[in-house]
Design a protein that fits this description.
The chain is mostly helical and 465 residues long. Helices cover 61% and strands 0% of the residues. Helix 26 packs across helix 28. The longest helix has 15 residues.
């Protein structure tokens, strides 16, 4: 078509200009499309045609589509480095001031407020970052301007890299920070404590992802930047999480071990900090102890138990600590009706409906319970009190264990609950009124939610009572 345009009289050049600058319904020229797709060959062809049609190079480089994207922004968004390198060279042809254009390109932001510097950091592209840094020095952009540029979310390039925990990029940025002439140490402190839109620092991200290498690197950097260890260990994200809680939520034991060791470096009283760490709860009200039980992780439980003794935490306080959810830990387990768990747990201690005991999942709970049983002996819990509290527990819908057992058609569970009633020394009237005839918030008794076989079993128990 370009060749055929020569046959259009009287002015083929005018037609060729129109073709190159013609836009589709989204405001894209062929130049935009080539940049967006990272097609260097097409871009070189269109550039030579633009010269042939005597189009101002600046017009081509700065033309915007409907989304207010230039070809540079389109290439930057996809981080097509080869395309960006081509455009950087071509910018030299823009008169009278190619340096001014190049500065504009490096600091130019897309609709999300990202510069190409942000994009390189966000994508974890170290090569692109190095290239852009050399270009910034070439056109004498102050390092601080590049470092502190923010997108519409208020994130710098450091925070963009932090979001996806691109450690290689963070290491590169850390080295480049030495070239910030005013005060590199001040910049480094800001970087380590800088939070992204979710309130995460790089430190929090490393803990959340279980990345020990990143955590160790950040810890070393914080000491070099003279950041108080306690500031780092107790810094919180928007939900009030510390790095400990972020790691505990995902049960990253290797991270927790690192944090525990580093807590010794916090003056004047590391033991106080360690107690805070062990008792710290996440947004669901879980401590690391709860998470270990819920995941059936015996190694983590053993480690946490040792740390609790080291920090002189009362064993009973650890075993019976409450979770902060709408339903209790006991009720979560009761909903699944893990009968073996209920039987063993009933022998262990009081107030279990609010404790860690019943968080262990099916298939893993046996080993966890064995450990908890050993730990419980140190706490000297009262088995009679726990049975009574378990029998009285209800979920958010007012369902007792009788409702749960009936709903699942578990005759064995109903027999177990009946044995508990007798062992707790409850009189017949109390059994009927508080357990068998109690209604949930929908007005249903255990008889109402069970099948015929369950109804017959409940009738047997009622007669015996």
């Amino acid at each position: 078509m370009w060749v055929w345009a020569n046959e259009v009289q009287p002015n083929p050049i005018t037609l060729k200009r129109k073709l190159l600058l013609d836009k589709d319904r989204y405001g894209y020229t062929t130049w935009h499309r080539a940049a967006k797709e990272g097609n260097v060959e097409a871009l070189e062809t269109f550039w030579s045609w633009a010269e042939e049609a005597e189009i101002n190079p600046e017009l081509l480089l700065l033309d915007e589509n409907c989304g207010e994207n230039t070809a540079w922004r389109s290439a930057a968004e996809k981080l097509h480095l080869a395309v960006l390198k081509k455009m950087w060279v071509w910018a030299n042809e823009v008169q009278p001031n190619p340096i001014a254009l190049k500065r504009n390109l490096l600091l130019d932001k897309d609709r999300y407020g990202y510069t190409v510097w942000h994009r390189a950091a966000k994508e974890g592209n170290v090569e692109a970052l190095e290239t852009l840094w050399s270009w910034a020095k070439e056109v004498e952009i102050k390092p601080e301007i590049l470092w502190l540029a923010k997108n519409i979310l208020g994130d710098t390039a450091w925070q963009s890299a932090t979001e996806n925990l691109h450690l290689a990029v963070l290491k590169k940025l850390w080295v480049l920070a030495n070239e910030v002439h005013t005060n590199p140490n001040a910049i480094k402190k800001k970087l380590l404590l800088a939070k992204d839109q979710d309130g995460y620092t790089a430190w929090h991200r490393a803990a959340k992802e279980g990345n020990v290498e990143a955590l160790e690197t950040l810890w070393i950097w914080s000491k070099k930047a003279e950041i108080n260890p306690q500031t780092l260990l107790l810094a919180k994200i928007l939900w009030g999480y510390t790095a400990w809680q972020s790691a505990a939520e995902n049960l990253h034991l290797a991270v927790l071990k690192k944090l525990w060791v580093w807590a010794n470096e916090v003056p004047p009283n590391p033991d106080t900090l360690k107690k805070k760490l062990l008792c710290a709860k996440d947004r669901c009200g879980y401590t690391a102890w709860h998470r270990a039980a819920k995941e059936g992780n015996v190694e983590s439980l053993e480690t946490l138990w040792c740390w609790a003794k080291e920090a002189e935490i009362n064993p009973e306080e650890l075993l019976l600590t409450q979770i902060g959810k709408g339903s209790t830990a006991w009720q979560e387990e009761a909903e699944l009706l893990h009968l073996e768990v209920l039987n063993e747990t009933a022998c262990l201690g009081k107030n279990v409906e609010l404790s860690v005991w019943n968080l262990a999942p099916v298939g893993k709970h046996k080993e966890v319970l064995k450990k908890l049983w050993i730990f419980a002996r140190e706490a000297k819990l009262n088995p009679d009190e726990v049975k009574y509290s378990l029998l009285l527990s209800k979920d958010d819908n007012g369902n007792t264990l009788w409702h749960q057992a009936a709903k699942r058609g578990s005759l064995e569970a109903l027999d177990t609950l009946w044995v508990w009633c007798k062992e707790a020394g409850l009189n017949p009237v109390k059994i009927k009124n508080n357990f068998l005839l109690v209604r949930n918030r929908f007005g249903s008794t255990a008889w109402d939610v069970g099948d015929t076989e369950v109804g017959e079993k409940l009738n047997e128990i009622a007669k015996e009572a």
